[in-house]
């Protein structure tokens, strides 16, 4: 079995199963792959250094070897906060109004990708598979090739690929895509993002793409395919049965008072997640349904992220204002409609919160996949499950057609969906939940990475359908 070299912007140092930390399903799944295939997870440590040395900090924790480098403050500012999160992130989420096109960001992006390439090369052995993750590192494959790496190299993009007419607003877009055509395999979350990429390749580069996603470019063959990511179902089930989860469930249920129903939202504080629109929709529901209003509570957990980027500071401010306004307008002495919480919780407690919620409100404006929708389904009581309300613009929507699908831009539509979910008969809730659970359980993160790794090895290209996408 080939060794795996995983490269991502940040490395998540493995923790013991059930540790109280906030290790996500992706970290768990990649950790498992690295243990099975042996291998190394390489990336930025999250730390800064005055002058870049390329020194590798190698560690081994819980059977996984990690290798990290420190970056200079200018790198963090212009590559991470700059090109990655002020340029590519908003552009790839269709927000050209928030996209900053600054030449120095692009230069730093190239410099840091070069630093990643130089630092990871000494770790790569001849038979290794190299798996690069996400928008921070799109040109890394071409830089590894320039330095003589002939191994199979794959890229998986966790976020959407934007429509061509938006993408071409990026200066040097041709160079960026040409650099991606040095990978052997490029994976997207859904057929929709794959189609946008293929559209660009055909229209702007005039290349031919075979039916199976094979692109021919400068005598190389690159395969582009959809690999929808899932959650680590077994890990999440274990977390949801833990004493911490049960304690969190009891605490939350007891705090609601009477037979009050609860809606839950769990999102990094990010404009792509549609939090402002969600608050507006809940406001609409409260206004239009005064007889039901005091029987519901919305719990919104939103740990802050990317606080150094101004658009994130603005949305945080905007949401505080909105939550305060809605609570001020509707609250009563013994009831507040929105519990807005700007902090993270351990995964096991989160699982208990999901289970306590009658409705999972997952309404991103644009999302590569969205794992919260899948976690919400996995955490439900099968006998008496809650209802998932899901944005049709989440990458998860094609696989989760049994959710109540909504347009998150329409407060009326989301308000109606909340009403429908609150009144939904048990039989219909069970039927929808069983169908959703089957896909969440079967199309899990283990299957995702097995399919990706097999395809990277050049095996089984025709074996797995991405049906439903
Ligand atoms: C990117 C793409 C794609 C959230 N709050 C807490 C907490 N979380 C966890 C959730 C979930 C994860 O963070 C968020 O995953 P998402 O998929 O919703 O979103 P992104 O962070 O934007 O991830 C996305 C994903 O990559 C994977 O490919 O699905 O589309 O944007 O697991 O549970 N975890 C804990 N406490 C919190 O308070 N422990």
UniProtKB/TrEMBL annotation:
The keyword Transferase applies. InterPro entries: Glyco_trans_20, Trehalose_OtsA. It comes from the Bacteria. Pfam families: Glyco_transf_20. Keywords: Glycosyltransferase, Transferase. Pathway: Glycan biosynthesis; trehalose biosynthesis. Its EC number is 2.4.1.15. SUPFAM superfamilies: UDP-Glycosyltransferase/glycogen phosphorylase. GO terms for molecular function: alpha,alpha-trehalose-phosphate synthase (UDP-forming) activity. The keyword GTP-binding does not apply. It catalyses: D-glucose 6-phosphate + UDP-alpha-D-glucose = alpha,alpha-trehalose 6-phosphate + UDP + H(+). GO terms for biological process: trehalose biosynthetic process. Probably involved in the osmoprotection via the biosynthesis of trehalose. Catalyzes the transfer of glucose from UDP-alpha-D-glucose (UDP-Glc) to D-glucose 6-phosphate (Glc-6-P) to form trehalose-6-phosphate. Acts with retention of the anomeric configuration of the UDP-sugar donor. Belongs to the glycosyltransferase 20 family. Homotetramer. This is Trehalose-6-phosphate synthase. It comes from Novosphingobium fluoreni.
């Amino acid at each position: 079995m080939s060794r795996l070299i995983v490269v991502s912007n940040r490395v998540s140092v493995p923790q013991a199963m059930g540790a109280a930390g906030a290790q996500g399903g992706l970290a768990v799944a990649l950790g498992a792959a690295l243990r099975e295939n042996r291998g190394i997870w390489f990336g930025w440590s999250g730390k800064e250094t005055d002058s870049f040395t390329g020194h590798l900090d190698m560690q081994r924790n819980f059977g996984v070897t990690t290798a990290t480098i420190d970056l200079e403050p200018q790198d963090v500012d212009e590559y991470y906060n700059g090109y990655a999160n002020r340029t590519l992130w908003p552009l790839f989420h269709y927000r050209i109004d928030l996209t900053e096109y600054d030449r120095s960001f692009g230069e730093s992006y190239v410099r840091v990708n070069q630093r990643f390439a130089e630092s990871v090369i000494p770790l790569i052995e001849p038979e290794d598979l190299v798996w690069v993750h996400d928008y921070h590192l799109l040109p890394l494959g071409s830089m590894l090739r320039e330095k003589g790496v002939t191994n199979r190299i794959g890229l998986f993009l966790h976020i959407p690929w934007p429509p061509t007419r938006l993408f071409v607003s990026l200066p040097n877009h041709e160079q960026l895509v040409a650099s991606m055509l040095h990978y052997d395999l490029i994976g997207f979350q859904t057929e929709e993002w794959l189609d946008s990429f293929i559209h660009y390749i055909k229209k702007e580069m005039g290349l031919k793409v075979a039916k199976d996603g094979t692109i021919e470019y400068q005598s190389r063959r690159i395969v582009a395919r959809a690999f929808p990511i899932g959650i680590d179902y077994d890990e999440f089930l274990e977390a949801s049965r833990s004493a911490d989860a049960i304690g969190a469930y009891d605490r939350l249920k007891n705090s609601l008072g009477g037979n009050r129903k609860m809606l839950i939202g769990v999102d990094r504080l990010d404009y792509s997640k549609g939090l402002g629109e969600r608050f507006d929709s809940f406001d609409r529901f409260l206004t239009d349904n005064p007889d039901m209003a005091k029987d519901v509570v919305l719990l919104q957990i939103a740990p802050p992220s990317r606080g150094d980027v101004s658009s994130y500071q603005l949305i945080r401010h905007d949401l505080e204002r909105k939550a305060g306004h809605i609570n001020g307008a509707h609250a009563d002495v013994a009831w507040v409609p929105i519990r807005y919480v700007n902090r993270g919780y351990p995964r096991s407690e989160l699982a208990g919160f999901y289970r306590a919620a009658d409705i999972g409100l997952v309404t991103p404006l644009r999302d590569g996949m969205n794992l919260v929708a899948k976690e919400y389904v996995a955490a439900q009581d099968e006998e008496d499950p809650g209802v998932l309300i899901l944005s049709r613009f989440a990458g998860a929507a094609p696989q989760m057609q049994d959710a109540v699908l909504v347009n998150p831009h329409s407060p009326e539509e989301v308000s109606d969906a909340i009403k429908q979910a609150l009144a939904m008969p048990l039989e219909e809730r069970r039927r929808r939940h069983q169908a959703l659970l089957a896909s969440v359980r079967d199309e899990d993160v283990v299957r995702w990475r097995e399919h990706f790794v097999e395809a990277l090895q050049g095996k089984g290209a025709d074996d797995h359908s991405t049906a439903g996408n």
